[in-house]
Amino acid sequence: MIMANITTMSGFLLMGFSDIRELQILHALLFLVVYLLTLAGNLIIIIITTVDQHLQTPMYYFLKQLSLLDLSFISVTVPQSIDNSLMDDGYISYGQCILQVFFFTSLAWSEVAILTVMSYDRYAAICFPLHYEVIMDPSKCQWAVIAVWLSGSVCGLLYTTATFSLTFCKAKIIHQFFCDIPQLIKLSCSNDYLAVIGVAAFISMMTFICFTSIIFSYIHIFSTVLRIPSAEGRSKAFSTSLPHLFVVSLYISTGMFAFLNPTSESQPAIDLLTSFFYAVIPPILNPIIYSLRNEAMKAAFRKLLLGGQFTRKNAFLFFCC
C-alpha cells in the first residue's frame, strides 16, 4: 500500500538495507549496538576532557568538539533508521527529510573543518613546540571552534536550500537508510541543476582545500618526526598522527565519492555501503582511536571509573560547559 501511494505522498520512502523482516530486525539490532557504543565512547571523551584538569589543552579541547560533532552526526540518521526497521515503515515526511539533510550536511562539513583544525594543532605542537602556547592560545581555539560550527550551519543551509528547490516528480523511493542528497537528486525531474551544482562545486573546492592543508600539515609533521633522535618520541608522535590521518582519509574519500556522483546509476548496495562508511564508521572509530591509543585519556578514564578523584567543582564545570 505504501509503495502504491508513495508518489502521491508529500514525503519519501526509505528502502533501507532490506525488505525482508528478519533482516530488518537484524539491521535494527546491529545499528542499535553501534549507536549505543558510539554514544558511550563519545560521552566518555566529552566528560573526561571537561572535568580532568590534566586534559585542558587545545588538543583535547578540539577532541571534545569532535566528539560532540560525532554524537550529533550519528544521531541525525541512525535512530531514524532503527525506528524504520523496527516499525517496518520507511516513510519519512518532507519536513523530516529537510531537517535531516540540513543537520547531516551541516555536521558533515563541521567534521571536515574540525579535522582540519586538529591537523593544524598537531602541526603546531610537533613542528613549533616552543611557540605552541602562543600559536594555539585559548582565544584562538575558541574562535576556531566558533568558525567550525558557523561554517557548518552555512553549508547546511546552502545545500538544503539548493536541493529542495528541485521538483521531485519521480517515485519518491530513496535507496538509502536516510535522506541522502545524491539519492534525492536522482528523484528530481528539474532541468535546472545550477544551484545544486554550484553549491556542490563550492563545498567540494573547500573540502579539497581542507584536505590539501591536512596533507601538507602531515608532510611537515612526518618530516619533523623523522628527525627526532628518540625512537620512543617518534613512536609517540606517529601514534597520535597516523590514526587521525586515517580517519580523515576514510571520511573525506567516501563522502566525496558519494556526493560527486549524484546522478550515477550505481548499485543500491554500493551506495548503502559507501554511505555507511562516511555516516556511521567515523563516529564510532574516533573514540576508539583517540582514547585507546592515548595514555593520558586512559589514565583519566581509570580515574573516572575509580571515582572520587574528580572534584565537585569539576563536575559542576562539566554541566556548565
Q: What is the level-2 CATH architecture name?
A: Up-down Bundle
CATH topology: Rhopdopsin 7-helix transmembrane proteins
In this structure, how is the largest beta sheet organized? 3 strands, mixed
Please give the oligomerization state of what you see: single chain
Name of the CATH class: Mainly Alpha
* Residues in helices, as a percent range: over 70%
**Radius of gyration, whole Å:** 21 Å
Tally of contiguous helical segments: 13
DSSP E strands, number: 3
Please state the average pLDDT score: 81
Return the domain count: 1
CATH superfamily: Rhodopsin 7-helix transmembrane proteins
Kindly report the spatial arrangement of strands forming the biggest sheet: 2-1-3
Strand content: under 5%
Subcellular location: Cell membrane
Domain G-protein coupled receptors family 1 profile: 41-290
Protein name: Olfactory receptor
Family: Belongs to the G-protein coupled receptor 1 family.
Overview of the molecule:
The chain is built from 13 helices and three strands. By secondary structure, it is mostly helical. The protein has a three-stranded mixed β-sheet. The C terminus is likely disordered. The chain has one domain: Rhopdopsin 7-helix transmembrane proteins (Up-down Bundle), CATH 1.20.1070.10. Its main location: membrane. It is a multi-pass membrane protein.
Give me the secondary-structure topology.
Blueprint: H1 2-5, E1 12-14, H2 21-51, H3 58-87, E2 91-92, H4 94-127, H5 132-135, H6 138-163, E3 173-174, H7 181-186, H8 194-225, H9 231-259, H10 268-279, H11 281-292, H12 295-306, H13 312-320
Parallel strand pairs: 1-3
Antiparallel strand pairs: 1-2
Helix pairs in contact: 2-3, 2-11, 2-12, 3-4, 3-11, 4-6, 4-8, 4-9, 6-8, 8-9, 9-10, 9-11
